[in-house]
Design brief:
By secondary structure, this protein is an alpha+beta fold. The chain folds into 2 domains: 30 residues; 148 residues, Glutaredoxin, CATH 3.40.30. Helix content is 38%, strand content 19%. The protein is built from 6 helices and 8 strands, in the order ααββββαβαβαββα. It has an 8-stranded mixed β-sheet. α3 runs parallel beside α6. The longest helix is centred in the N-terminal third of the chain and has 20 residues.
Length: 195
């Protein structure tokens, strides 16, 4: 059997096994679609968490592409946006201009934007940032450390995912998929108004 036919047979068998295990899970259906888009897309759904329903402050550490170390505790006292992305992700490219626009609008109001790059090497990430004029930093998260750390608070579940942290460092909102600019602006305005 040739290598190509062996891989095709193995891939078909894997797809059957995965399909049998996944049922009606839409994320699993996307993974099994075989369309080679290389990401699990969110549907743009927004989940807001009332103050009484929020878990404890998030905990993570990471390293920015410039080598600087960051810790979730560094962002306490301000509203923080965590945006999970990577350069080849089409929805990430779609939302990047709006992320930068909101970063420009809200940075003076006490909002900190922080990207979490889940896949790219430094040169690729920096090219993306230059192309879209992004001025906020990103954490290198190829090993999934930040992503994993945040799953105990709220699962990101798709790329892109945008999390809004309140001033106490707790997740107050999550957007799965492309963050609509108006929606994210409203979430930030609400979070800033909280005590």
């Amino acid at each position: 059997m040739s290598r190509r036919s062996l891989m095709a047979t193995g891939g078909a068998a894997l797809a059957v096994v995965l399909a049998a295990c996944t049922g009606k899970d839409p994320l699993a259906e996307q993974a099994n679609a075989g369309d080679n888009k290389n990401y699990i897309a969110g549907d743009g759904s927004v989940t807001e968490y009332g103050a009484a329903d929020r878990k404890e402050p998030v905990e993570f550490t990471g390293t920015l592409f410039d080598g600087k170390k960051v810790d979730a505790a560094d962002f306490l006292g301000q509203v923080t946006v965590l945006n999970f992305w990577y350069a080849a992700c089409a929805p990430c490219r779609l939302e990047a201009p709006d992320m930068q626009s909101l970063n420009t609008e809200f940075s003076a109001k006490g909002v900190e934007f922080l990207g979490v790059n889940v896949r790219d090497e430094k040169a690729t990430a920096e090219a993306f940032e230059r192309n879209f004029g992004l001025t906020y930093p990103s954490i290198v998260d190829k090993d999934g450390g930040v992503l994993l750390a945040l799953t105990k608070f709220v699962p990101p579940a798709a790329v892109p995912t945008t999390l809004v942290l309140d001033k106490k460092g707790r997740v107050c909102a999550r957007i799965l998929g492309v963050a609509d600019k108006g929606t994210l602006k409203a979430l930030l305005t609400t979070a800033l108004a909280e005590n």
